[in-house]
Amino acid sequence: MNFHRVRRLAAVLVASQLRSGRSTSDPTSFLGSPALLATLDVGLFAIAAGVALLAVRSAGLPAGTWAQLLGPLLPFLPLVGLSVVLVAGTMFELTTTARFSGSDAAHWLPLDPTEYAAASAAAIAYTYSPAVALVVGGLLPVALVAGQTLPYLVAVGLSVVALLEGGLLIEVVRAVGQRAGTVAAARGGRFTLIVRAALLIVVILAVQLAFNPVVLLAFVHDLGSVLIVTAIVPFLWSTQSIFDLLRGDPWLALAFAAGQVALLAVLADFAGWTRAKYWVAASAEVQVGSVRFASGHPWFTAAGLSGPEAAVAAKDLKGFVRRRELMPTLVVPIVFVLLIFLEGGALGPLGVVLWLGWIVGFFGLILATTSVGQERRALQLLLATPISARSLLRAKVAAILVPVGVGSVAVGAAVGIYFGFDPLRCLALVGVSAVAGIELTLWGLVFAARYSDFQERPRPQFLRPSGMLAATGTGTVLLFAFLVPAAFAIAATGASAVAAGCAAAGVAVAVGAVSFHWSRTGFDTLFRELPF
Amino acid sequence: MAAPVAPLPSRAPSVPSSVPALEVDGISKSYAAVRALADVSFSVPAGTIVGLLGPNGAGKSTTMKAVLGLVRPDRGRIRLFGDDVLADPTRAKQQIGYVPESPALYEFLTGAEYLDFVADMYGLDGSAREARIQQFLTGFELAGHEGSLISGYSQGMKQKVALIAALVHRPRLLVLDEPLNGLDPRSARVTKDLLRNLATRDGVAVLFSTHVLEIAQAICDDVVILSHGAVLASGTVESLRARAGLAGSGLEDVFLSLTGTGDLGDVVQALAR
Hints:
The structure holds two protein chains of two kinds. By secondary structure, chain A is mainly α. Chain A has helices at 3-19, 35-59, 63-70, 77-93, 98-102, 113-127, 129-146, 149-187, 190-210, 213-221, 223-232, 237-246, 250-278, 298-302, 307-322, 327-343, 348-371, 379-383, 389-418, 423-451, 465-491, 494-528. In chain A, helix 9 (190-210) crosses helix 16 and helix 20 (423-451) runs parallel beside helix 22 (494-528). The longest helix of chain A has 39 residues, at 149-187. Chain A is globular, with a radius of gyration of 25 Å. The mean pLDDT of chain A is 85. The longest helix of chain B has 18 residues, at 185-202. Residues 1-13 of chain B have low confidence and may be disordered. In chain B, helix 8 packs across helix 9 (251-258). Chain B has helices at 60-68, 89-94, 111-121, 126-139, 155-167, 185-202, 213-219, 237-244, 251-258, 265-272, and strands at residues 22-31, 34-44, 49-53, 75-80, 83-84, 96-99, 173-177, 205-209, 222-227, 230-235. The N and C termini of chain B lie far apart (42 Å). Chain B is an alpha/beta fold. Chain B has a six-stranded mixed sheet with strand order 6-7-8-3-9-10, with helices on both faces. Chain B has a four-stranded antiparallel sheet with strand order 2-1-4-5, with helices on one face.
């Protein structure tokens, strides 16, 4: 393996992601340089260490207490790196658009597959390293006060190994996924497309749940089983190594640490092998099914949409199922819904209504904020067709309200039944979550019309970060302005419930009206001139 | 070579024949400090093919986007059959077929689904659309691939889909930005013959940009040469030859002479070392 080539390619892969969204600014500026991430690493490490140092000093606890606190946490530091890469990687790396994953600029270069896999894994690890730097910084003062400097340094080193192992695992899954995609393409058919999407969702969902902080914390607390599991599962040998070091067995610790490093080498070789065996440079031609031309989409036209509006809405719905880069928007709410069933028992009716309303509302917000940007460069051809701004807005609203509506009814009913709500409250739960979804859908379109990001990039963001921050911040406030009285109306009885219901309805109508007006003006602006 | 795409039915002109199909009248456009277009004027009469030529960055694509209403000029007007494009852009777009320089199609749709989508956007009748789309698919040798996702298409196949999408609703003006990019020789020939056929038989106006000057010379009635956002020269190929003092020369020599890039010998020599 030529490490110079690996390093150069990894730097290019990081830069490509950093720069792809900055078409108008200087691509050679610091913001487009891989050094940005190193600076973030150092900055976050320093901030976390500083805050932790203040906390340690102000707490004034003896060293032994800090050692007792650190003991159960430090062994899991490498697991943080692994879980960050796997959770973010399955969400964003496996869902890169077919265009980018099928053909990238490096294929023609004289690289062997292991070099490419190593470079890509290093780029992935480096991209997500700031999250680990934050945790590592926060633990430094604690480790120093507790007199655990050596275990801390070993944990930091093994965290880097874990980050790289996570990147290599993503590479392996990506290569195998390519093979599965090719096999599916050969089979063809609409059913295959749905199965392919479902499989991707299941893989992402499994990793999201397995490495979810809630599950990991439960794992940490169950120390009795951990000591057995960490010795058996190779990816947890780092954890076992630090446990052994803390228990005063340096030779066993060294053996497990060496095993973890050896696993990294084996994984690098395996990732190269899977890439050589399964990777295809070009997207396969997928035969979807029999060809039929038919005008009109009866469901949408029955709902009052015109022909062009129905066509856009139907096109967007197909995109939800077929576009890998949109999968995270479908997976995230599913994770949160599953967490309701896992952890929602302690919330009570008021908490359940708030949580469910938040999930459905944010599902609508995310779909809405990404609905214009996901057109990407195809917006040019869409705006060249005879569709008006108002029609496009109606089409987008309709396309989003289908999954939001189905989600709020299905999940609202399931959650209501699971937590023993009576039929009337169950119906109210469905209604409240549906209104939350509609409210934030309209609010999200306000930002979609103004902040959409149309850049072609491997990991599309669809909405500029400033827009996403503004949409989520204001959306949260508006959502809870509706949800709190709505939840109270469901949980309470009598006149106070009626009053709360009226307040919730008033907020919903006001927010809906303002959102719809601002969405219209935003779409009018969008139609004045192509935004790229 | 005979194109297997049947001629379109002739259409009754709804405006006086003296009114050009497209009239670009003194449009200017700047992006911050960058001047993209400066007082660009030309017209495209019905039934003619006008080539829009120029070096990279000359303003060809911006001009075409302005015709579509996708770019709003700072000054000047664009009239389509006498009507201001910006007064009713939706109505104008109904009459235009457009192929951008790098068509970005919805790659998660099949070719057939995409063309069906476009037909819906233009309100094409359900029974007529199938025959028309099938006719084009056969003509461009895409039959058999229309049920596949566009993500698996080659660049040429995507270009063919974009061309069919621009033609499917029988537009009165075609705005084609490098339409022959990536096409195989047969499909390029079909496209050129089809454009000539549409112009002469059906009075369709065509605004056509290309960097392949032999193609422009072969099919364009007039050419407009843009440079640095301004019209450098316009007219028939013969009139431009005369203006450049290069009677008997090809359009490439005329173009290089007019754009001041004629003396390339030193560049080639340096590159060949």
